[in-house]
What we know:
Helix content of chain A: 25-40%
Largest sheet of chain B: 8 strands, mixed
Strand content of chain B: 15-25%
Structural class of chain B: alpha/beta
Distance between the termini of chain A: 44 Å
CATH topology of the largest domain in chain B: Rossmann fold
Largest sheet of chain A: 8 strands, mixed
Radius of gyration of chain B: 21 Å
Number of helices of chain B: 15
Strand content of chain A: 15-25%
Strand order of the largest sheet of chain A: 2-1-3-4-6-5-8-7
Number of domains of chain B: 2
Distance between the termini of chain B: 26 Å
Helix content of chain B: 25-40%
Radius of gyration of chain A: 18 Å
Number of strands of chain A: 8
Oligomer: heterodimer
CATH superfamily of the largest domain in chain B: Thiamin diphosphate (ThDP)-binding fold, Pyr/PP domains
Number of strands of chain B: 16
Largest interface: A-B, 50 and 54 residues
Amino acid sequence: MAIKDKLKTDLFPTIWCPGCGIGLIMQQLASVMDEVGLDKDNTVLVTGIGCTGRMGAYMNFESVYTLHGRTLPVAEAIKTVRPELNVIVVSGDGDMASIGGNHLIHSIRRNPNITVLCNNNEIYGLTGGQTGPTTPQGTTTLSSPAGAAYSPINLQGLVNTNPNAFYAKTTVYHQGPMRKAIKEAIEWPGFSFIDIASQCIENNGRRIGFASAYEMLEHYKTEYKPGPRDATHLEPHQLGIVKGEPVTVAAAAPSGKGQGE
Amino acid sequence: MTKRLVQGNEAVLLGAVHAGATYFCGYPISPSSEILAQASHYAAAHPEFRFLQAEDEIASANAIMGASLAGAKSFTATSGPGFSLMQEAIGYGHKIGIPAVIINVMRVGPGTGMPTMPGQGDLNQTRYGSTGDYTSLVFYPSTVAECYEYSIQAFNAAEESRTPVILLSDAFLGHLNEVADLDAVKVKVVPRTMEPLASGGTRLFSGVATYADGEPATADADEYIRQYEEAKKHRLEVAERYAFYEYGWNKESETLVIAFGITRRIAQPLAAHFALFRPIRIWPALDKELVEVAGRYKKIVVIEGSDGQYANVVERMLLRRVERVPLLGGRMSLEAIREGLDRLGLLPSEPSKAGAESPAQADAKASAVG
């Protein structure tokens, strides 16, 4: 019921292609917000470049639409200046793991109390479908006619270099696990990262043999299985949450709104 | 406070603190690193002042944009190659309208160049470094006391213009220790007026061209021009209130020397022989002021630590030829200036030591080298 309060529905339809997975993430994020007490007075969205970055424009929150790859420095600074705010980062895999990769490894190290929702469609969608850092090796893309040359980046391994961090893997098909992951990530006291497999039918799926977004969702349904409870590591195509040892982030006193004399 | 020895880099930091800055993010790079180090010490003693040594200058410049949107007056400090990495965030700040201050303590480039040697080769980068058209506000002090004063002014101009303002310095000035009474500097601080994030609204701060409601305006030239002209007009109006310059020395001379930053200090012993115009606001260029002054002189010579970056600007403004004394490779010395003037036939026949200023200022070069 309260989902609509969280969305700027007057701007719908969105610019996302029919069948895009991003809307499924936005819907679940919007629907979980009331449950975890997020509203426009205590929450800021920070989004990256690419299709995913548009999400901030469609939600009823103050939103910072950053440059390519720069969500994390911006989000961390906001959290530092205003520790009382919930800072939610929504970003694609290319933005997060390639052009923003240096920021990612250092944000993981610093363990700020922010939450990252990574729309992982294994492709650069908005620019037309070039190989990304998460594209499976061998995948034919606009920029890899003979198949992607390298193995994809290990996001789980990166996040878990910090023993206090939170990593979750889900897909847009698995709405229940995604909801659980978003909720727990927001409540996690430190850096939390949700790696969400999500379909890009127009600029990836069709090129690799899927006839429709529905087929891609069916693929997630059959390929992904729940991982073990209290997993310390997820195998490829396992759903679940890997939690480190939570540290209580020492909350600095708010510096207050508005500085200067 | 009484007079004491203050370093240029320290004065910049103290000015920022006085201006109400509460967030610093930076990355070590010579010759600006003292600002980072002293900011960290200041933060340790003042928890309301937030400090981060980031992974690189890209993060630093983007972080200060986020911090400013969150409500903090924010700043960073860097030099040549680091300043290059900050250009995207500077453009982002101009697009959205984010107040922030970026201090660039110039060394000799391009590339890694000569990290500890003074240069003035980043003038064009402060104006044109990021993609697209935008209106830069840039200041460049000449003394340690001015480092403090124009640090405050840079924050004020940032708040008023809602742009990232650049404060230039150089390896000489940043490392120059001179006696200064910073309390004697009286500049009123402009308070933050921009509503911080999460003030009850649903604003979108977008680097992408958008309409007021957040919808993309990425193919609408009329909307682009409307927003661009509005921002430009406002920023130029603000710049008018910060039209700082110095006009002095021997105004009866036939030759006008244009020099700024540390170069003006180095040229001080020539004061009896030349008139001086020193722009403190580097950008927007002081066209009105300079045109008026330059009209009184037969010859104009620009002495600067680059191969004519400002001389080109002056030629364009005045539509007349100007002479050039480029001080390159860190050779920013009175001898190099004399050699340059000699080549142009402008070297005065009798050397004069009639610097009208204090010994501390006249000895600027010696102190900086020491």
